[in-house]
Amino acid sequence: MIKWFRDKLHERNLQVLGLFTVIGAFIMTFCSYTSPAFYFDTSPDNNAFFTVGKAMMHGIVPYKDIFEQKGPYVYLLHGLAYLVSSRSFLLIFIVEIITLVAAMFLVYRLAGLLGTPALPALLTGILVPSLLLYHPYYDYGDTVEFFTLPLLISLVYFMVKLDRNQLNGSRGGYAAQGAIVGVVLLSKYTLLGAWIVFYLLLMGRLVVTKRWRELGKLVAWSAIGFLATTLPWLIYFLATGSLGAFINVYVLFNTHVYLTSSVAFFANLVQSTTLVSQFYLSNVIFFGLGIIGTLVVMFQPAIFHDPFMRGTYLLTNLGADLFALYGYQANAVYQYYQLIYFAFFILPFVYLCQWAFKRVPLPTGDAPFPILATLVFSLLLVLGVNNNVTNSKVFPNNSAITEAATTRPQQPAQVVFGHLMRTETPADTKLTMLNYGSIDMGFYTASGAVPNTYYFQNYNISQSAAPQILASQQAVIRDKDVEWVVLNTPVGKTVKQWPGVAGRISSGDLNPGTAKMSKMLLKRYRPVAQHSQIFEGVNETYWLFKRR
Asked: Coiled coil: which residue ranges (predicted)?
């Protein structure tokens, strides 16, 4: 056993993985808001996922008993995070490290598959975090897009292997991709574009060439992987009587309410193409890797030997890009949606590094100085493209924490209010609260409260599109169904003075307005605390109310 362990420690892949883990942990400590180096993860989406995951662990069924529109795998992951640490994102932070390390390792293996020597391949893997953590596409962290990146890179790797093996895939490779399709389908199905195109083209090619045995292997093993990751959820929804609610929310609500476009299929496709084009033209790096780099991949026979696989790569790239933004208008696209595009920057990036390292006199084996120099350069690049560290504990009392002019260490509103709610709620009483009018601001997380209302938050849609959400929240306040209510206004505006903007959530996750409901609120609840801080560039005040 000791000899086996010693031999394993000397395996190159394991050593590379260990180095990447150290690098990944260090980088994510200062880039992800889920890191303990940050005061609190203030991302609305992350906290919404955590709140629903926590509710799941208390027997509350998503879609049926609590409303949120992401896929069940997102909530399961955050439910497990709640079990690990009930008021922090510690497990998510670990998963983010694993995600980055997996992407680095896949890039390293992809470079080797393309004939890059061991040391340059290692250096390529060390450099790639500066691409994958590009702000604001990687913003707070903990997005489905970020977790999908290594899965999509694995598809690129699999396509290169298929090219090298004359379209003969392994059973394990097909099963893995099938399982990934199931996970992505039940996390955020708009990210499935690349796999849809890949499977359609590969199956079509196998049918045309009458390779029935390979087609059978592709379908059978992909189906096995797919069923392994989807069948348990079907059983769960049937057992809890929530299959209809799942379809109504995850499928119908997302496609008929949450998407912003109501035009025809072709018009939506043109609209999505326009958004993708604007993305590639917005930055010289994106243009270089996304347009020029893809053209190099298409016309460089050393990358894909088979013209069919070159075309497959191009079309899977386009499929991922177009499907990710299909149905969205320009003013409704959040930049983190486009992080998924970066997976198809990887192959041009690897080729560029291969070309560059050929022109640098590197040793034939591993050497400490090139590795250390590349590591330092990579860290500098990461800090150059991602400035999240300025909101961390490295910078005490930064504007994301407080607007108070003081040298005393401060905490964000979420932590301050959370402590107050836990302190003033008797130990034998269930803590109940409502996040009014905006996406989850983190007070459920900080207080430990489990939602007792279906609409525990609001969403990035107009009030007219789903009037039942705010109506339900106002009914909760009117009936005094919760002990605590939390909401926000711009700094300088009281609850009576904030009219809102256009009947929907505005910049800084500001709610659609409180002026009209303030009389009802103040009659039933009294203000007990307020705290001002900047969120996404908006100076706002958080208010905490307690039931009278």
From this structure: none
Q: How far apart are CA 344 and CA 346, in angstroms?
A: 5
pLDDT at 263: 61
Report which secondary-structure segment, H or E, holds 543: strand 538-547
**pLDDT tier at 407 (50, 70, 90 boundaries)?**
confident
pLDDT at 416 over 90: yes
String of b and e for 197-235 (b: at least 16 CB within 10 Å)? Answer: bbbebbeebbeeeebeebbebbeebbeebbeebbeebee
- Residue 35 to residue 133: CA distance in whole angstroms: 14
Sheet order of strands, 538-547 included: 433-435, 484-490, 538-547, 525-535
* Cα(143)–Cα(133) distance, integer angstroms: 12
Token digits of residue 488? 């926000």
Helices 72-84 and 90-113 sit at what angle, rounded to 10 degrees? Answer: 120
User: Quick one: angle between helices 12-31 and 2-9, nearest 10?
Assistant: 70
Please state, in angstroms and rounded to a whole number, the distance separating the CA atoms of residues 374 and 357. 11
CA distance 490 to 533: 10
CA distance 33 to 38: 6
Backbone angles phi, psi at 203, to 5 degrees: -65, -40
pLDDT tier at 403, thresholds 50, 70, 90: confident
SS (H, E, C) 47-74: HHHHHHHHHHHCCCCECCCECCCCCHHH
The answer to whether residues 296 and 348 touch, using CB atoms and an 8 Å cutoff, is: yes
CA atoms within 13 Å, Cβ hemisphere of 40 = 28
User: Which 3 state secondary structure label does DSSP give 541?
Assistant: strand
